[in-house]
């Protein structure tokens, strides 16, 4: 559960994720992720829809979603890439947007676009089980299962690896046929659980 | 809210838990068996091969004796560190020293090839024999109990050092027609706890603190052979045709027939190939 203290300022949070508050709060649904007409159209086109609300007021507001674990990310001008379904709450000082991620999304059924959060402030992301933060450096690239990927930040290049061989047609695949490889410098968040992916059983 | 710890290949533990739900295995040219699809991330160069892979023949001969589960297991080999996790369940590693442990098939996440995996005669369970490390998951932390004990079937994760398990039915199940009807229909109310597994003898019983199970995967059937528990006999032989060649096996009658077998069907070999 995430507690946010507010003094007249606002946060953007996943629709319906408020579980309690004290003080005075205003909840306003933001159509199209609160990114204006252009953001709305982009989100609709990219199928990276995110229903968020704006919470403004004085007091403390608590957010939670299906008992998922919450990780707080402090951003200082960097950009965080996160699946829209994993965004719980972001500070109003952060800008959200949509970006193309390449083939990774296609394998996990989340679409080929992802949500970006940038600016200075804090963002709360949720994961099924506590997220593990893994550092990627030039010497140590990281390979991640698409179903366990939550978010990443930093200057990372991601590439999609497919290890499908003739063995898969005999049902003797390695079980990890689709992977995303991160190279560069940055951080990757993975969750100790795998979403149901199209490729999950291959 | 604790400050997040950032891991890199140097700070990740070697063959230990990263957190309660994630386990890190270090491979140095060595091999680990793991259940398909449970790897969440890895550093380094690691190959995943289905256990049918020809190169693994020698390894399989010594460590893998469970053909029915073959399509659920892969062998990871290479250099690096990999993270294993399963549905945000609690993951724990156990060391077995010249011992034996039987575990529900879906709860076993990975094991070292120094252990050998065999199918338990209890359907849906696997037995590990030997010395080595293995990783198991459970919904909620594992509780260790000493027999004699009766446990709820859903809470049972496994048992070690061979206490003998058996079914236990409450007295009410057997008292007359009314008791039977009650159990069958639920009319009049049942507590849902009329049936337990009973363990006696020396050993340890592992329980999970939740009654949610992993999805069970159909793993085919054990060879149809006289005296093999769980072997579903083809009951069509009872009509007198004698086609199954099983000479008079009464007592197998009550078990579920496996359905008609098509002529071209390769027994349960199909399972072996993941069909």
UniProtKB/TrEMBL annotation, chain A:
SUPFAM superfamilies: TRAP-like. InterPro entries: AIM24, AIM24_sf, Trp_RNA-bd_attenuator-like_dom. It comes from the Bacteria. PANTHER family: ALTERED INHERITANCE OF MITOCHONDRIA PROTEIN 24, MITOCHONDRIAL (PTHR38074:SF1). This is AIM24 family protein.
Automatic annotation (TrEMBL), chain B:
Residues 246-261 have a biased composition (Low complexity). Residues 236-245 have a biased composition (Gly residues). InterPro entries: AIM24, AIM24_sf, Trp_RNA-bd_attenuator-like_dom. It holds the Pfam family AIM24. It comes from the Bacteria. Residues 223-275 are annotated as: Disordered. PANTHER family: ALTERED INHERITANCE OF MITOCHONDRIA PROTEIN 24, MITOCHONDRIAL (PTHR38074:SF1). This is Ser or Arg-related nuclear matrix protein. The lineage of its organism: Bacteria, Bacillati, Actinomycetota, Actinomycetes, Kitasatosporales.
